[in-house]
Amino acid sequence: MLNPSTAQAVIDHALFLGADFAELFVEHHQSSAVELISGDIDQISSGIDFGIGIRLFFGNKILYGYTNSTDEEELKRVTSLLAAKDKRDQIAQAGSLNLSRHNNLHTCKQPLSQNGYLEAKIAFLRQCNDAARAEHEKINQFIGRIMQREQQVEIFNSTGLHIGDTRHYTRIAATAIAKNGSEQSTGFESPGALTGWEFSNSLNAQALGQTVAQQAMVKLFAETCPTGEMPVIIGNGFGGVIFHEACGHLLETTSVAKKASVFHDKIGELIANPVVNAVDDGTLTNEWGSINIDDEGMETQRTQLIKDGKLTSFMVDHMGSLKTGYARTGSGRRESYKFAPASRMRNTFIEPGSSSLDDMVSSVERGIYAKKMGGGSVQPGTGEFNFAVQEAYLIEDGKITRPLKTATLISTGPKVLKEISMVGADFAMAAGMCGSVSGSVPTTVGQPALKVDNILVGGGN
After folding, report:
1. For helices 4-16 and 72-83, what crossing angle results, to 10°?
2. Cα–Cα distances in Å, from 132 out to 34, 42, 178, 200?
3. With CB atoms counted within 10 Å of each terminal CB, which end of the chain scores lower, N or C?
4. Which are the contacts of 159, defined by CB distance < 8 A and separation ≥ 6?
5. What is the block-wise mean pLDDT of the chain (461 residues), using blocks of 10 residues?
6. CA-CA distance, 334 to 373, in Å (whole number)?
7. How far is residue 58 CA from its own chain's centroid?
């Protein structure tokens, strides 16, 4: 996408201007989306974007800019504008660019650039719609969306690195809305994978439509949730969003380097119940949050964050490594060429344990089963969170009894880690998007069912 001789010239220019490190991130991004509302195709869109991000290090200071031009003089001009903010006389020596290869861990048989697969996508959405509406007469709306994109990246830097990768993403979102008079409730699922349209072969359109409709119907006639501190069992899969948001961000050097994380000095210490083991793994085949290389050109890896309750590692990008001294973990990520990379999560999850869901439920006299989590908010630095439960049930005398309309879980990441007493064996993962200083990136959350001994539950309507 960019002539290596042009890249070398721009990098040499950056170092001549006093930068300690220079990097070019080249991106070609193609996307398409199909949306169905009220039984009809509402929108079909597509787009192509191209650009080059230029990053310079002056000590621990980062300067960043971008352009849509591949012209050498234009790239040098942007570089000069950046370097002018921290002009130096010291000239570093750039390494000669050498093209590197990496293992491709993620197969793609039906990429977006090969065929748009528009008719197949429309047929899939119509099947979902028909199945959702057939589930119950009170399902009065279905919204479906299919997104597919292809991101080609090429990275050059002053250490001599030249490496590239192509990433294929497919994600399907389904929402069902049930209505009874003035009462309304929703069901939602959004599976995704790092692969092409063949991902749809692993899904059943009818089952997807039925699932979101059933979720909506369960809540439509549910009871008000009790409030107060009580034990809560958090379901598998997307339940891992609490660890991701309330704890995962505190383990990124984006916050650790600034000592804005309560865990910044806790390596080797017990920060969770010993039954808790947590991992951030970018190598899982075709998982939504996986990558071959990060957006700084480093091959991805599996990073053990917590082992038997003890903090064992952080997620570390290039600048994070310079600031903290911890080794890089292939965690430098960005939304696009418009963002400088930062340490970010990939597939972040709590590993399976040995307890069964039945054992957890039978151990609770009165509490909540949060079968499926929804969205929430987190306070950066402290990990204080407030998460909605998308599908909740009351537990009474060791049995799951009545569905609940709404439930909210309120606590902090550090506190909830220590309140986890049982970890299930029913491990599952779920796709999501994570926003931070370097934009929005695909991430996967996951966990088996967990028992939290004590957490504040908010209810009401």
Report:
1. 20
2. 18, 18, 10, 18
3. C
4. 21, 95
5. 97 95 98 97 97 97 98 98 78 81 92 94 98 97 98 98 98 98 95 98 98 96 94 97 94 96 96 98 98 98 98 98 98 98 98 97 98 87 89 97 93 95 98 96 98 92 50
6. 26
7. 30
**Alpha-carbon separation of residue 158 from 19, 122, 311 (angstroms):** 10, 46, 33
Percent composition of the chain: helix, strand, coil (DSSP 3-state, to 5): 25, 45, 35
* Contact present, 263 and 256 (Cβ < 8 Å): yes
Strand, helix or coil for residue 143: strand
Q: Find tokens 């409030």 and name the residue.
A: 227
Picking from 98, 136, 133, 121, the residue whose alpha carbon sits closest to that of residue 44 is 121
Dihedral over Cα of 308, 442, 440, 25: its sign: positive
Q: Which of 149, 150, 161, 152 is nearest to 52 (CA)?
A: 152
Decide: 422 and 450 in contact? Cβ < 8 Å: yes
- The tokens of 95 are what? 């390494």
Rounded CA separation 410/153 (Å): 40
CA angle, 41 then 45 then 50, to 5°: 165
Retrieve residue 306's tokens.
């917590």
Contacts of 21 (CB under 8 A, 6+ apart): 55, 56, 57, 92, 157, 158, 159, 318
Residue type, 218: V
Name the β-bridge partners of 116. Answer: none
| 110, 197 contact by CB (below 8 A) | yes
232 with 458: CB under 8 angstroms? no
Residue type for position 120: A
Asked if residue 36 lies in contact with residue 143, where contact means CB atoms within 8 angstroms, the answer is yes
Q: Are 334 and 52 in contact (CB under 8 A)?
A: no
User: How far are the Cα atoms of 215, 281, 297 from residue 445, in angstroms, in the given order?
Assistant: 20, 11, 23
For residue 263, give the nearest of 242, 277, 281, 249 by alpha carbon. 249
Q: Distance between terminal CA atoms of the chain?
A: 54
Residue 305, amino acid: L
The reported pLDDT for the residue numbered 50 is 98
Closest CA to 279 of 319, 234, 244, 253: 244
CB-based contacts of 415, cutoff 8 Å, min separation 6: none
